[in-house]
Each structure stands twice: as C-alpha cells, then as structure tokens.
Write a structure and sequence with these properties.
The complex is a heterodimer of chains A (474) and B (534). By secondary structure, chain A is mostly beta strands. Helices cover 15% and strands 51% of the residues of chain A. Chain B has 5 helices and 36 strands.
C-alpha cells in the first residue's frame, strides 16, 4: 500500500503538469494596474479593459507560470565546476534550507477569452486550466531523506509539518463589471470548475525514531492524504475521467475614486471549492497516534534457502507496510481553491503615469502567502506602455518587476514578470514568475492626448476625468 | 526622442538579461550523476526463538514431559514386510490323468457307462507345503478331455473338493459331449470365491478328488479294443484370500533407515545424553497365523562426523543377537503386537555419536522351527515394524558444531560505502554459542570470514539452577562488538555466492543441562550502512 501511495503521488504530479502544458501563472501583483491588458481584470473583476472588445484564442492566448521556493536556490542544488560540468550537491541544498520550507508551483493557461463593453457594463467569458501545487517540508525531513536516519540514532524526528497539497482544474468563467456611478465600479465573476487532479494532506502527524541499541524503527503516525487521480489501472492518464469533478467559485471586486487622482480598490478571488468524487483514493492511518515499531524480520524469513534477495527485500517492505497500517479508502473530499484577497490603491502622477500599491494575500491549504507590490505604470504613446514594480514576496525583498503591452493594430502582445532579477540571476532566485500573452483588441476607449494636461487613466475609472478635461484643455 | 529612449531601455534590458543568464549553468548534458550517500540504520532480524522453532523443519516430533523438559522423538513408521499374497505364491498347475477301458460291442442303440475318479495332487508354494484348503480369491480352472472315442459320449464331471465359499455347494460343471468327429472337449470354470479342499492320501499331499462319469452311445462304427481318455486339469492365476495348512518356511526382508534430523548438520563435537535420556521402543505387528522370527541383521547408527562412524545397536546386550520371536495370532484376521522396550541396549552410546541416521535391516522367517503346526494366513497378512527413538534433551554439550550453507545473492553491495552489523542477544538457553559466517564463491572458496578469530562467544549462556531441574534462573543479555565492513571487506564479498554458517555450542562448563520448552533466545541483528548510489 505504501508503494502505491508514493507512486500515486508521482502520477498525480505528472497529471497536474499535463493539465497545463505551458507553465503560466496569474500575476495579480505587477499586472494589477496594467489596464491596457484585458487580463488585468482577472485580478479585480471591477476593472474594465480599455478596449470595447478583446479576444484570446487557443494557441495565442495568455500563459503564465510562477515558482516560489523559499528553501533553496538553483545554485544551492546544482553547482558548476571548473570544467563546466554540473553536479547536484545534496548537502549544499540541505545547508541552504530553513527550519520550515515551502515549494510552490502555479501554472495557468487561458484557452479562450472574450470580453466586450455593453453600455456601462463589461461582460467577459473565459476558459482556462489551472494548477497549483505546494509542498511544505522541514529541514529535518530533507535531512532524513538526504543523510539517512543514522544521524538520528537515539533521537526522534518530528515530520508532522510535511504536507503536499495541489489541485489541477479547468475553469469556465463569466464576468460582469459595471460602473455604478462616477466614483464606484463593481464586478463579479462566476466560475464553474472541472477538477482534474488533487492531492490534499489533511493530516500528517508523523514522528520517527531509531533505537540506539538495536536500530529498531518506531513511528507514530496519524495520516490522512486524499487524492484524486485521473488515471486508469495502468497508471496512465484517463481522459474519460479528466475534469470530471465539479466545483463552483466566484470573484468579487470594487474600485472607488476618493479624489481626482486617488483611488482604492479590492478584490476577493477564487472563493469556492471542488468536490472530488471520481478516481478518489484516501490513505488513512488505521490506528491514529499509535506507535509502530519495526524490529526486523524473522530469521527464517531472511535466510530462507528458497528465497532470493529480491523476495526477501519485498517481504521486508511488506512487513514494514503492514506495521505502519495505512488503509486505502475511496470517499469523496472537498478542496478549496487558492483564495486571494487583494487590496490596492493608486495615484495618477500625470496623464500617462500611474503609481500603485497592491497588497495580495493568498490562502491555500493552510498556508498564507502575503506580498506587497509598488508599481509605476507609464504609457509611451498609444502603442506601447510599460511598468516597473517592486515587490516583497514570500520573505524575499528583492523582487523588481517589469511589464509591457505592445499594441500593433488589433494585435496586442504583452508580458509581465514580478522579478526581473530572477530572470537575470536565475540560479540565485527563489521566486520566478512570468505572464505572456496575445490578444486581439478592438475599440480603444481612452483617447491619448499629446498635451501637458495630466492624463488620468481610466484605471481605475476616474469619475472626475471628464470634468477636468474642459478646464485643462487649451 | 522618447522613442529612442524607449528603444535604448529595451535594448539595455535585453543585454543585461542575456549577460546574466549563463547557459553553462543549465547545460544538463554535462550533469554528472549525483551520488546518494545517506547513512541508514535499520533492524534486519528480530527473532524470539524456542527450540521448537529451531527444530520445526526437521522430522522429529517435539514434545515435552510433565516438567516441561523437551523430548524429540524420531519414528520409523510402518516398515511393512511383503504380504502373504506376495510371499506365498501358488503356481499355475497343469495336471494330466489318463484312463483306458474296454467296452462290449456297441452297436446302434446300445449304451455303455464308465466312471473315472482320480485324486490329482496340487503343487503347493513350496515342496513341503501341506495345504488343507485354499480360499480362492480369484483364478480359473480348465478341464480338457481328449479321447480316441468313435462313439458319441456324454461326460458329467464333479469335483468334490471344489465348493462355493458362501453356499458350500459343489461347483456345477457343465456336461461335455464327445462325438466321433470331435472326440475331445473342454470346459472353463471361474473358481473365484470358491474353496479348494485338499487331502493327503498315501503320503501324497494336496489331493483334489475328481468324479468323471460318461455314457457311450453305440453306433455303426466298430467297437475299439481299447478306449483311452486323458483328463487335463489346468489351474491358472490362483490367488487366495486365505490359506490353511502347514504353510512352511518363508523369509521376508524389512529394511529402512531413520533420519535423526537434529544431528543432520552436525560436523563435530559431543552431545552427551544423560543416563536415561534415550529410549528405544520397537512395536512389531504380526498378522501371519504362524510362528515368525525377526532377525535384525543390521541395526546401526551412523555419523559422518564422529568416529567410529557406525555403532552397532544391541537390543538385548552385548553379544546377544537381535532376534525377536513375534507373538502369533490365534484367530484368523487377528493382529498381534510384540513390543520391545530396551533396557540393556547400547542405544545411548549410539546416539552420543550424534548420528544423522539409524539403519534397520531385518529378516522375518515363518515357521523357523519347522515344527509342523497348522497355520493360517490371509492374503494381506504381513509384518509391520514401528520404531521410536525418544531423546530427552538432557545432557552436556561440548563444542557441538553444526554447519549449514545459505544462498547469498545480494548484488548491490557496490552501492554500499560501509556496513556495520550489530548483534544483540537475550539468551534463555543454558548454552553458549560461537558463530562464524564464511562468505564463499560457488566453489566454496572462502572470500571473507565475518567474525574475528579466535572466535568469542556471540551468545553467552543463561544462568541455571541446581540439579535435578537445571532450570534457567536468568537470561543473559549481550551485545557483541560491532562488526564493520569497510570498502576492502565489502570488495571481498561482492562476488560471494554462498554463506557457510558454522556454529559451535557448549553447556556451561560442559556440565549437564536440561532444555525446557520455555527456553528461548531473542536475537536482534541490525545494520547501519552508508550508501553510495548513483
């Protein structure tokens, strides 16, 4: 059962990666105030794009990926030697780890998106696949894997913090935004979810000790791991059950202009859950918090003349598995999405320049990931706009972001990263994300004026803009 | 101007990014295989073993007496002789009797009656066998008549010695007819479930009486001066269900060997049983209804390890032959058991050589004294020898050594940087054990010896109380010094195919001890190893 458990996790992670063939992640930090890009409205449904119509089609739509790892960097694992050969250094990795560590991957691929303006409202549709995976582990856990248990002879290791959580799903969303009055805009997005694969560590109490005299292994465990894996009996992805677990979620947002230049806004994203019913497997300790000690196998079993070393080893594994007593079940379970609460404020420095601050809070599977982003957005004419940001993300203060949107007629190309330094020093980075995409856009709603009049962008909608124009127009 | 600034901004950004990402850092074609070098410690063996566990796979029956003292019994069960049917075989018979006679002139319409009443002797299984009766299980009888008769003749035959087993009526034999053109005839009779009764007449044994009557019908053929008739009697495949009479001498051989599993792997040393610790019991069943003498010609214990290898076992004392006269059934179907419990035998001496086998070879002879008594047998009469050797585990052990060979095919030893074996024992046996493991190749060439020599005790003996019980008072815990395999030693055993395990045991000060069913040993073997896995 134990080996089945680990192989299932492996298959599950592969299945998750299959869901999104291109790495991508929603970038709700630096993208937040890049209103030339329609996908910025995904960070706050009250935001309306600056185009009357936009379209993303499969193969040329938005893709994004985010990777965060507060435990180690690339060059903590892979070292280049003088002869340019690379070597994986497990001990250097171990030295880099903190007491508790997280490794997260978020990927997102937009398959189709459509939006259009209808009076004071803006309606959008989108179809996308998303995956989020988070592995929380302690230094002791990695130390046990890398250095073995000999270092813990006569000691107990607490591995309770070790948790793997992840979901991969499809999302069909219908968004609606409306300008209520000259100051307030609100928006909402309703999402129907199609769960593809999941792993949830509901309980992971585990301690492990090695007897000083006999090396007997004692474990106290209370484990419940739920998995949904769209695989068939041959551990291949089963397309018939892929995306067959239903769920619902919604986003809410608002934007409010306090003054001519200053606005505040907030959004709640991915409030909802998926109920996993198909291809579900639960691994549960049958005797929670009981102590199991493995003292060794019977002498006759180890030195049976008819047995080979392989069968002896398998017998040893079977004995250990039976001792640890984990039951396999098939009960449905529910997982929440990675819920986000974002608040922001922006200030129009001039007609083409907007300064913003965004506080993003993400809650997923018991983990809380806050971030703070400061950004400057500037339009270099109608064709090109750029963004520079600074973020504090996941205990990392050195995140300089940048982004651009290039409008070539109806074709819009854009790209955003939260950490350009990571791109420059990829081997030393612990947080990397990027979002790139291509939209067909029509009906640019903001009139760009070559004047000294401070332009107040409609991001967020500026209720006072029209009032200002006559007075400032020469 | 703004456009130029923009282009510069982009260009500088791209150059910086390109300059900072060193492709060599990601050239995974130059990634060397990482070596996993974790060090793991785990228990390998944990066994709480009693002697019953140790001996469970050998052929002895393990029991205990009222005090809990273990007794191992080795039994030779159901060593059967041949059955009477296989031993006493009545041969096929072909018996001919003739008669000549004269008749008056037998013209048409005249008749002539003639009788022929011979006693025909049956040949027995032996020359001297004098049978009273044969209860025929199966067999056939052919009566064949040949004559020179030129007259039509009716033949009526009665065999007064042949009756049905259940009705005791004479067996009816169909009438035979002879004609001038066919002056011979025959009849086949199934004599299964019949009784053949035989008489001794004028010192001729085993006679069967025939009564052949015939009537010759006159015809136009001339009457011959001499009529001749041949009576040809053939018994074929005669098998009996019972035989009565003076059945004579027959000899049957009984031979087998008994494995003494406890000593199968013995390679030396002494296992001295205390007086009274060994008992030998022979139970011999006899269903032959006649005197039978069992002469145990060869009764020896054999040890490959000890010298002399063979010890002759004398059941009744030195120089007295191992001859046993078996009790005889007095009623048909009865089975008599003769029990021999040795009190004067040297069985203890024989077992003190730690034999792995006891050989038994005996001849059973019927009517050994030829006293001419009347006997009976059934077809299934036989001799059945059962032998029990009871060994109470009570004695002293001096360097008693056993050896066994185990298969060793662990192929991944080159993935180990080192190994440290640890042995912890809690011994509840009053025995101390030295152990050596030899790693050998297929040709038994020693590649490495596991424990440093001279060998020290790996298992220390438990303390015991005084006689007569010699019970263990406290088990002894002991941790043998760790056995370390470094790269050099691991290299030696990489090609090992077998492990020869040698253990030698001693009782405390070579004194007498008793092994009880409650005695146990707790063995824990653990391994700590540093890996080097690519």
């Amino acid at each position: 059962m134990k080996s089945s458990y680990f192989s299932s996790i492996a298959v599950l992670i592969i299945a998750m990666s299959l869901v999104s063939t291109h790495l991508k992640a929603q970038n709700e930090r630096s993208l937040y105030y890049m209103r030339q890009i329609p996908q910025a409205s995904y960070a706050n449904p009250a935001f309306t794009p600056e185009f009357k119509f936009y379209l993303s089609i499969p193969g040329a739509s938005s893709v994004s990926a985010a990777y965060n790892n507060n435990g180690f960097k690339y060059n903590d694992v892979v070292t280049r030697r003088a002869d340019d050969s690379l070597v994986i250094d497990q001990h250097k990795l171990l030295n880099a780890l903190g007491a508790s560590n997280d490794l997260g991957i978020r990927v997102n691929e937009e398959l189709f998106a459509l939006g259009f303006k209808a009076g004071k409202s803006y309606i959008s549709l989108s179809l996308s696949t998303k995956a989020i995976f988070n592995f929380h582990y302690t230094k002791d856990f990695m130390s046990l894997l890398i250095n073995g248990n000999a270092q813990f002879i006569g000691k107990s290791v607490d591995l309770s913090e070790t948790k793997a959580n992840g979901i991969a799903y499809g999302e069909a969303a219908l968004g609606f935004a409306r300008q209520i009055n000259s100051r307030l805009s609100v928006g909402a997005r309703l999402k129907y979810l199609y769960g593809a694969a999941a792993i949830e560590t509901q309980n992971s109490k585990l301690s492990f000790s090695t007897d000083q005299k006999t090396f007997a292994l004692t474990a106290i465990s209370d484990i419940q791991v739920n998995m949904a894996q769209p695989t068939n009996d041959k551990n291949k992805v089963d397309m018939n059950t892929l995306f067959s677990n239903p769920g619902m979620a919604f986003d809410l947002g608002f934007s409010y202009a306090l003054t001519k230049r200053f606005s505040i806004n907030a959004s709640l994203l991915d409030i909802g859950s998926i109920t996993w019913k198909k291809k579900v497997t639960n691994y549960i300790s049958t005797k929670p918090n009981s102590s199991f000690t493995f003292n060794g196998v019977e002498i006759n079993d180890l030195f049976n003349k008819k047995q080979t070393s392989d069968s002896t080893f398998n017998h040893l594994l079977d004995t250990i598995n039976s001792k640890f007593s984990i039951k396999e079940g098939h009960k449905s379970f529910k997982t929440r999405l990675a819920q986000k609460f974002i608040i922001g404020a922006c200030y129009k420095l001039d007609t083409n320049t907007l300064a913003g601050v965004v506080i993003r809070n993400e809650f997923f599977a018991g983990t809380y990931n806050p971030s703070l982003t400061l950004s400057i957005n500037h339009s270099f004419g109608r064709i090109f706009s750029g963004m520079i940001s600074y973020s504090y993300i996941d205990k990392n203060f050195l995140n300089i972001g940048t982004g651009f949107a290039l409008n070539l007629g109806p074709l819009q190309i854009y790209g955003v990263v939260d950490n350009v330094i990571a791109a420059m020093q990829i081997t030393r980075s612990q947080t990397v994300n990027a979002q790139v995409g291509l939209n067909f856009v029509l009906g640019y709603t903001r009139k760009h004026k070559r004047s000294k009049i401070p332009y107040i962008p409609r991001i967020p909608p500026s209720p006072l803009e029209d009032d200002l124009k006559p007075a400032l127009t020469p | 101007m703004k456009k130029i600034r923009l282009l510069l901004f982009l260009l500088i950004g791209l150059v910086i990014i390109q300059a900072c990402v060193k492709t060599a850092d990601f050239n995974f074609s130059k990634l060397t295989k990482p070596v996993y070098d974790g060090e793991w410690a785990a228990p390998l063996i944990s066994s709480n073993i009693t002697l019953k566990d140790i001996l469970k796979n050998q052929n002895g029956l393990i029991q205990s007496d009222a005090q809990g003292n273990l007794i191992v019994t080795y039994s030779l069960k159901n060593l059967f002789s041949q059955t009477a049917e296989e031993t006493i075989r009545i041969p096929n018979q072909h018996l001919i009797q003739s008669t000549n006679f004269l008749t008056p002139a037998l013209g048409t319409g005249a008749t002539y009656n003639y009788s022929f009443t011979p006693d025909i002797p049956l040949t027995g299984a032996t020359v001297n066998q004098q049978l009273d009766s044969i209860y025929v299980k199966s067999g056939s009888l052919r009566i064949q008549i040949s004559t020179n008769f030129n007259k039509t003749t009716a033949l009526n035959l009665k065999i007064t010695s042949l009756i049905h087993r259940t009705t005791h009526q004479l067996v009816t034999i169909p009438q035979m007819t002879l004609t001038p053109s066919a002056p011979g005839n025959f009849v086949d009779i199934d004599i299964s479930d019949c009784i053949l009764i035989m008489k001794t007449i004028n010192n001729t044994k085993n006679n069967i009486h025939f009564d052949l009557g015939m009537t010759l019908q006159g015809n136009t053929n001339p009457t011959l001066s001499n009529y001749t008739l041949n009576l040809d009697t053939q018994f074929t495949n005669l098998k009996f269900s019972a035989l009565y009479g003076k059945l004579g001498n027959f000899t049957m051989n009984l031979s087998n060997s008994l494995d003494i599993g406890i000593f199968n792997n013995s390679i030396g040393g002494a296992f001295q049983f205390a007086p009274g610790a060994i008992n030998l019991k022979l139970n011999i069943d006899n269903s032959f209804g006649m005197p039978v003498q069992l002469n145990v010609k060869n009764f020896t214990s054999h040890s490959d390890a000890a010298t002399p290898h063979d010890i002759a076992i004398n059941l009744f004392g030195p120089t007295i032959p191992n001859i046993i006269n078996l009790d005889v059934p007095t009623v048909f179907g009865e089975n008599k058991t003769t029990t021999v419990l040795t009190t004067n035998s040297n069985i203890q001496d024989a077992l003190n050589t730690s034999p792995d086998k006891i050989y038994f070879n005996a001849d059973a002879t019927t009517n050994p004294l030829n006293n001419g008594s009347l006997n009976f047998v059934s077809d299934q009469s036989k001799i059945n020898v059962n032998m029990d050797v009871l060994m109470k585990l009570y004695g002293s052990i001096t360097n008693f050594a056993i050896q066994d060979t185990l298969i060793f095919n662990y192929k991944n030893l080159d993935q180990l940087e080192n190994m440290t074996f640890r042995v912890n024992t809690t011994n509840g046996f009053p025995l101390a054990v030295k152990l050596q493991l030899y790693f050998t190749d297929d040709s038994y060439r020693i590649l490495d010896t596991m424990f440093p020599e001279p060998l020290d005790y790996i298992i220390k003996p438990a303390s015991i109380g005084s006689s007569p019980d010699y019970k263990v008072t406290s088990p002894t815990e002991y941790q043998f010094p760790d056995i370390i395999y470094d790269q050099t030693r691991i290299g030696k055993i990489k090609t090992a195919q077998k492990i020869i395990l040698k253990a030698s045991m001693n009782t405390i000060n070579n004194s007498i001890v008793k092994i009880y069913e409650t005695n146990y040993i707790d063995i824990k073997l653990s391994l700590k190893t540093k890996l080097k896995v690519n």
